[in-house]
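RECORD CONTENTS
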Amino acid sequence: MRRAALHAFRSARRVPVWRVAGRKPRAVSFSSSNPLALRPSSAGKHPSFIPATLHSSMHLRNFSLAVISTVVASGAWYAYQGGSSQSAAVAGLNRTISTSTTAYAEDPSESTRRALLVDNDQFYTATINGEEPLRKQTDDSDRRLLEMLTPEQATQKLRKNEESYLVNRGKGVVRYDVVQVPSNSPIEDDHAEKIVEVPSTVATAKEGEANSDWMFWGVFDGHSGWTTSAKLRNVLISYVARELNTTYKAAAADPSLLTPSPAAIDAAIKQGFTRLDNDIVHNSVEKVLKSNSRRVAAETLAPALSGSCALLAFYDSQSKDLKVACAGDSRAVLGRRGPNGKWSATALSEDQTGGTPSEMQRLRAEHPGEPNVVRNGRILGQLEPSRSFGDAFYKWSKETQDKIKRQFFGRTPHPLLKTPPYVTAEPVITTTKVEPSRGDFLVMATDGLWEMLSNEEVVGLVGQWIEQQQAGNVGGNKTWLKSWFGFESKQLPVETSQEAGTEGQRRPIRQQQYDISGAADRFTVEDNNAATHLVRNAMGGKDKDMVCALLTLPSPYSRRYRDDVTVEVIFFGESPDTRTVEINKEASAFEENSKAKL
């Protein structure tokens, strides 16, 4: 802190001063014990830009860069040293004020840029004059910029990882869009997509067709690291497809069946999930103990020590059945347009956490006599998802954990650990009959999106995006859209949810954090990629300052305001059958030589 103040003082002669801007995002405070626990801001909705302790020291209209640089340095320092007291930062500010008395005039010819200040768990926007960006020096290998992104830079960051594919296979899917926006570094989310061409010897195809398609889409929300979600990206679809192949083959060989029952398909998907988790959590231990090598332990146990939720959609082009398998708190929502032109939002999964009533009931029944199996909405008071891959510390026995810690590395078993496993990777599966002719679409996303938008807002936003695509206001290739919608463009409002209860769906808590109203006029349409469109509006929409501020915040401090976000939007419809899947370049950030995946 003292070094930051000294550096700011020494550089005061070289760089002009800051000037406080009039625009201030609404501030939110957090409790120090839990970065995501909301509590009312003591400063109110619009706190003063300069901390109250500094008011008596500000006698000059123009104040030196040393003072303001130290404000920023203290904010950045607090962001990375979140457990330190605020009084030390304030003391550092006062010391700098007392030693720096020279005011520097602004040069009106110099350029003005936006910047983001983070201080006392609040962030503000301001203007900075001059060409030198504001920096946080750590060491030779790392440098943090606090200069606020411009709207153009924010758009580049939103679109950096977007993908879009046009599916020309005549099997009921016309397009799917994907985007990821990280908050953690590296991002702990992951995703996977695969289309499997299935011969009629495995699954009965339509008359006159030699094969059908199995289509998979998955989003994986990692926690405590990225290794588990990366493992799921690589192999989960293969595990599930292998089990489905066995099940469909057995049914095809039976003249009385030809196709497996819905229950048999569900069982195959569950078997794929649980077999993979068993390999990650238990078979890995056997391999490590047999090798007696710390190097092997480090490589093999990584996916077991971290964790990941999994949301997998499976679409059978023959039956038009869409199955959504959920293990964790990611969510899938179906959008369907009714005869009145309005869209309805139907949740195809339930958020599975320690705070979900159905999960609490299940856990208490499985672990009688353990009142703390769920505490404060978390498993054993710590882990929020009640179903996930990995998370071995909630699945290994105490003896296994002691052995791993003694021979290799690990942590002390939880003091409440009695009858593991407390967490399972077995998914809950829903089945929905898709109607491609009605233009159904599916939105799958990690909880980073659902913390910001409700189900109805997400479906309404995709409907709004479709309307703008039809009107030609966004640009791009409309061939897929013409084959999907043949009727005139109308208003696309979303139906109010008619579901009796929403206890399995958590509310978008970030709207309270950002003090955002539910008014639809805050939304905008600027992107060719439907998934990117959702993320932009989740982070502020028309409020470009909010979008820029949220995307400027560096990791790990950004995690207090937004999570990693992964979104997939799948559009069902009738497309020409050219047996191809091609990259939609107008909505993708691929390099020129990239090829579509099949």
About this structure: The domain at 149-472+480-581 is CATH 3.60.40.10 (Phosphatase 2c; domain 1). The radius of gyration is 27 Å.
